[in-house]
Amino acid sequence: MKSRFAIVALVLALALVAGPNAARSQERACRSPDPVDTIDEMFSAIFACWEPPPGTAGMTLTLQFSIRRNGTLIGKPRATFSRLGNDDTLNRAFVASVLDALDKALPLPVSDSMGGAIAGRTLFPRFTAASGGAS
Predict the structure, then answer these.
(1) How far, in Å, CA of 135 to CA of 132, rounded?
(2) Residue 90 forms part of a structural domain
(3) Residue 62 in contact with residue 123, Cβ under 8 Å?
(4) How would DSSP label each residue in 23-61?
(5) What are the tens digits of pLDDT across the range 32-44?
(6) Which keywords does this chain's UniProt record carry (predicted)?
(7) Which domain does 102 fall in, by range?
(8) Rounded to whole angstroms, what are the CA distances from 54 to 29, 59, 66, 91, 120?
């Protein structure tokens, strides 16, 4: 049983370090009721709800949070890394867009198996605004 959890933890860690990309967010609509059954689908569900503001290309924000097995947020998300610009108004708009995406995407419609695998685990999605949209 411990080895199964170790494997799940390793897969989660590798997936979280690799991060999502724009192609994944285009595969799923925001607030899709389709069950989330993988890490890729989970990030896709969140990124599908994100629209970075104009003028924020290159800005990055990594959040840290956990979700329950029913797809709801545990506590409040925390920023663990950011690379913002010199314009405070744009910085606030960028951060607000990330938090708004998370708010729109949650609760995630996680499958029973996915809910059991990620419940309470720390997640670290990275939001990076590219010149053509989210990445």
Answers:
(1) 9
(2) yes
(3) no
(4) HHHHTS-TT--SPB-SHHHHHHHHHTT--PPTT-TT-EE
(5) 999 999 999 999 9
(6) Signal
(7) 39-129
(8) 21, 11, 29, 11, 34
Phi-psi category of residue 8: left, alpha or beta, with phi > 0 → left and psi -120 to 50 → alpha: alpha
Q: Is 99 inside a domain boundary?
A: yes
The interaxial angle of helices 88-105 and 39-47, nearest 10 deg, is 130
**Is residue 63 situated within a structural domain?**
yes
Q: How many domains does the chain have?
A: 1
**Main-chain dihedrals φ then ψ at residue 34, nearest 5 degrees:** -60, 135
The dihedral sign for the CA sequence 86, 89, 95, 101: negative
76-104 confidence digits (pLDDT tens): 999 999 999 999 999 999 999 999 999 99
**CATH number for the domain harbouring residue 121:** 3.30.1150.10
Residue 47 lies in a domain: yes
